[in-house]
C-alpha cells in the first residue's frame, strides 16, 4: 500500500544548517551602484548660464556667476550682454551671490571694465542707497574693484556722483550736523555696522586720494602747440546730467562743494576711536596736507583752496 503524501508536510530543522528557503522567496543578494549623470550644460553654453543667473534659487545664481567667469574669455564679444545680466546681481538679496559678482568683476580685463564702467556704476550707486542694510554694507567692495583695476577712468566718470552718495550711505547730513543720522545708519546695519562702516571710510579715503592726485604729465611732442584747437573734444557738452571730471582740478572743485558736511561727518566718526576713527583721521590729515584749509567762526564760509606749489 503506497504512502500517502501530505499536502503541507513540515520539514524538520537540523542543527548547524540554515533554514531552507521557501519556493516563492526573493533573492536579495544583489549589490547596488550609484549612477552619476554629468551636467547637461556640456561645452560652453553661455545662454544657459545667463538664464541660470536669473534663477530663483540663490546657490544656482551663485554657481551661474562662477560658470560665466570660467568661460568669459571665450565670449569677449558678448561682454556687454553678460554684464547686463550679471551687474543687477550687485543688488542681489543673497550675500554669497554678491561676493561672487565682486570676484567676477575683479577677474575681468581692465579694458572691459572701462568700456562698461557707466553700466557698472549705475548698479553700484543703487546698492549704496538700497533699502536693505546688508546690500548697502557690501556696496563699496565693488568700488574697490574699480579703484584697483581702472582708477583713472573711474574718477573721471564717477568721482562726483560717487562722493555725493557717501553721505546717505554713512548717514551724514548734507545740510548740517550729521550725528543723529549717523546713529540711525549704524543701528540699521546692526552687527554689520563696524566692519561695513570701516570699509566705507577706507574706500572714501581711496576715492579722495585718487580724485585729487595730480594728473600725469602728458608729452605731446609730435603735435603742434595749437593742435588741440582743431581736435574733436573728448567731453560731450550736450550729454544731459554729465558729471564727468576730466582732471584733478575739476575734481578738487567738486570736493570743495561737499567740504563742510564731509569735515563734519569725519570729525564725528573720528571721535568713535578704534579702526574707524583712525581711518577718518587719515582722510582729515590728507585733506589738511593736500589743501590750504581756511576756517572761520562761521563754518558756512569755510573754504578749500589748492595748496600752493613751489
From TrEMBL:
Component of the RIX1 complex, composed of IPI1, RIX1/IPI2 and IPI3 in a 1:2:2 stoichiometry. The complex interacts (via RIX1) with MDN1 (via its hexameric AAA ATPase ring) and the pre-60S ribosome particles. Belongs to the IPI1/TEX10 family. This is Pre-rRNA-processing protein. It comes from the Eukaryota. Component of the RIX1 complex required for processing of ITS2 sequences from 35S pre-rRNA. Signal peptide: none annotated. PANTHER family: REGULATOR OF MICROTUBULE DYNAMICS PROTEIN (PTHR16056), TESTIS-EXPRESSED PROTEIN 10 (PTHR16056:SF2). Residues 112-208 form the Pre-rRNA-processing protein Ipi1 N-terminal domain. It comes from Starmerella bacillaris (Yeast). GO terms for cellular component: nucleus; rixosome complex.
Amino acid at each position: 500500500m503506497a504512502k500517502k503524501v501530505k499536502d503541507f508536510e513540515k520539514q524538520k530543522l537540523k542543527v548547524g544548517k540554515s533554514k531552507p528557503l521557501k519556493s516563492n522567496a526573493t533573492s536579495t543578494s544583489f549589490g547596488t551602484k550609484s549612477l552619476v549623470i554629468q551636467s547637461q550644460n556640456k561645452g560652453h553654453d553661455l545662454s544657459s548660464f545667463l538664464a541660470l543667473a536669473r534663477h530663483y534659487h540663490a546657490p544656482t545664481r551663485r554657481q551661474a556667476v562662477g560658470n560665466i567667469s570660467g568661460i568669459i574669455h571665450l565670449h569677449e564679444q558678448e561682454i556687454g550682454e553678460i554684464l547686463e545680466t550679471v551687474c543687477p546681481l550687485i543688488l542681489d538679496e543673497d550675500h554669497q551671490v554678491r561676493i561672487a559678482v565682486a570676484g567676477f568683476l575683479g577677474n575681468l580685463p581692465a579694458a572691459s571694465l572701462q568700456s562698461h564702467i557707466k553700466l557698472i556704476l549705475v548698479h553700484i550707486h543703487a546698492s549704496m542707497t538700497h533699502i536693505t542694510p546688508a546690500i548697502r554694507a557690501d556696496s563699496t567692495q565693488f568700488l574697490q574693484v574699480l579703484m584697483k583695476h581702472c582708477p583713472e577712468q573711474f574718477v573721471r566718470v564717477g568721482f562726483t556722483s560717487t562722493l555725493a552718495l557717501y553721505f546717505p550711505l554713512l548717514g551724514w547730513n548734507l545740510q548740517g550736523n550729521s550725528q543723529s543720522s549717523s546713529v540711525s545708519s549704524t543701528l540699521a546695519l546692526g552687527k554689520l555696522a563696524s566692519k561695513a562702516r570701516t570699509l566705507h571710510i577706507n574706500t572714501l579715503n581711496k576715492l579722495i586720494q585718487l580724485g585729487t592726485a595730480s594728473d600725469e604729465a602728458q608729452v605731446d611732442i609730435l603735435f603742434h602747440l595749437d593742435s588741440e584747437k582743431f581736435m574733436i573734444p573728448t567731453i560731450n557738452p550736450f550729454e544731459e546730467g554729465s558729471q564727468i571730471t576730466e582732471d584733478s582740478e575739476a575734481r578738487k572743485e567738486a570736493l570743495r562743494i561737499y567740504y563742510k558736511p564731509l569735515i563734519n561727518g569725519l570729525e564725528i566718526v573720528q571721535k568713535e576711536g578704534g579702526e574707524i576713527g583712525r581711518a577718518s583721521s587719515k582722510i582729515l590729515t590728507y585733506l589738511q596736507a593736500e589743501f590750504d584749509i581756511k576756517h572761520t567762526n562761521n563754518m558756512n564760509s569755510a573754504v578749500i583752496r589748492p595748496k600752493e606749489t613751489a
